[in-house]
Amino acid sequence: MTATIDADAPEEEEPETGPHRRCIVTREVQPKERMLRFVLGPGREIVPDIAGKLPGRGMWLSARGDVLETALSRGAFLRAARGQVTFPPDLRVRIEDGLRGRVRDLLGLARRAGQAVSGWQAAREWLQAGRAGLLVQAADGSLAERARFGGRDLPAVTPLSAAELGIVFGRDHAVHVVVAPGRLAEAIRTEAERLAGFAGTPPEQA
User: Fold this and answer.
1) Which of 33, 141, 146, 155 has a 20 to 30 Å separation from 41 between CA atoms?
2) Is the pLDDT assigned to residue 18 strictly greater than 90?
3) What's the angle, vertex CA 174, arms to CA 118 and CA 52, rounded to 5?
4) How confident is the model at residue 14 (pLDDT cuts 50, 70, 90)?
């Protein structure tokens, strides 16, 4: 259940420990890997920390575009930072690009580790052999083709275009990608869901 947005709630010091964080807007507590972290840059600019590794105290938001807009319009970052801050004009673009980059990087790792294949035939072979832990399909692929591919009991995400998937796999385009079960598949799914939540699109467009 999603908490009601209350950007006027008083800020409290939240410890940067443990697997969960509290959103500075909704006050909802979630696993940190499903949220968005921000830090203050040297000039007190708000910097999105997509990988969650930059130094400094984090300010955390639920991974939703409307939550970011509320944070910006109602001063949530100012209260969390306890002072004036500045925002890059392309903040939303930076976040979306960063999330897309995370998906691409993780898919690339899976491909190089032999844990992901692309293309109708190879992906279907993995699917039929029970080697599939996650189905990644092109967001702009044909709905009929995606449905015909199968894998209805398999978690599926559509984070990237066919051209973007193709770049990862050294092809002109790719519509179907199958990832083996394991930590990489889980990480790709989490990043795809963060991107979908922030962009306001379903994680699976089947």
Assistant:
1) 33
2) no
3) 80
4) low
Q: Which of 175, 169, 172 is nearest to 146 (CA)?
A: 175
Residue count of the chain, please give it. Answer: 206
| Alpha-carbon span 159 to 149, nearest angstrom | 17
How far apart (Å, rounded) are the C-alpha atoms in residues 164 and 104? 8
Distance (Å, whole) CA 130 – CA 147: 18
Domains and CATH numbers, the chain: 20-88 (3.30.1230.10), 93-199 (3.30.1330.30)
Q: Are strands 156-157 and 134-137 parallel, antiparallel or unpaired?
A: parallel
Indicate the SS3 state at residue 149. Answer: helix
Per-residue DSSP letter, 39? E
Q: State phi, psi for 55 to the nearest 5 degrees.
A: -70, 160
pLDDT score, position 146: 76
Judge whether 188 and 179 are in contact, CB under 8 Å. yes
Distance of CA 127 to the CA centre of its chain: 24
At residue 28, the 3 state secondary structure works out as coil
Q: Please answer whether residues 61 and 38 qualify as being in contact, where contact means their C-beta atoms are separated by less than 8 angstroms.
A: yes
Query: Is 95 within 8 Å of 64 (Cβ atoms)?
Result: no
- Residue environment code for 172-190, b if the CB has 16+ CB neighbours within 10 A, otherwise e: ebbbbbbbbeeebbbbbbb
